[in-house]
Design brief:
The chain has 3 helices and 8 strands. With 180 residues, it is α+β, with helices and mostly antiparallel strands. The chain has one domain. The strands form 2 sheets. A 6-stranded antiparallel β-sheet has the order 1-2-3-4-6-5. Strands 7-8 form a two-stranded antiparallel ribbon.
Length: 180
């Protein structure tokens, strides 16, 4: 598979307890270092296979994905933000022709404010989407849709390759909704 030049993908260890067979990938938008979550946006894609076809899956395959990106605080308070993030996932799947059933997930927006020694970090916001679905057909289309989603959350819509990014607004130490 090939990805846009500003999105780096690497294989990571798949969780062993979710299915008999699995493969997992991490993706980062314009990462600053190899193997480190990007300040622009990051995600995980896990493809699970269970020949026993669990009832909840409706087939032998299941995709589990995660995507998150920092936001400007003004965007983080938008009441429709979670709905937009979910619609971007569905739009990416449909645009790639990725057939699926039994989609489910959560979209979480986090607002943060530093105090004391962290006061200089200022306000921050983040969007996080966790989703799963049962894929059918071309599995490559599902990986492509996930990559598009991560880039969209990071502010890089399709066709924006090579466009400069002025910087992500993220309070230092904010990872996965917790403050260090």
């Amino acid at each position: 598979m090939t990805f846009r030049a500003d999105f780096t993908v690497r294989e990571i260890s798949a969780p062993g307890s979710l299915a008999p067979e699995a493969i997992a990938f991490a993706g980062d938008v314009r990462p600053s270092a190899e193997g480190v979550d990007s300040d622009y946006g990051t995600g995980r894609f896990i493809l699970l296979h269970d020949p026993q076809e669990p009832d909840a899956w409706g087939g032998p395959w299941r995709v589990v994905c995660f995507a998150q990106a920092p936001l400007e605080p003004e965007i983080g308070v938008d009441p429709l933000l979670a709905d937009v993030a979910w619609s971007w996932l569905l739009d990416a799947l449909h645009a790639r022709g990725a057939r699926f059933d039994s989609a489910s997930g959560t979209a979480t927006k986090t607002l943060s404010k530093g105090f004391g020694a962290l006061a200089d970090e200022g306000d921050g916001a983040q969007i996080e989407l966790r989703a799963s679905w049962s894929p059918s057909g071309n599995l490559t289309a599902h990986v492509d849709a996930w990559a598009e989603l991560v880039c969209m959350l990071a502010g890089l819509p399709p066709g924006s390759e090579g466009i400069a990014v002025f910087g992500a607004h993220r309070a230092s130490g904010v990872r996965g909704g917790s403050r260090g």
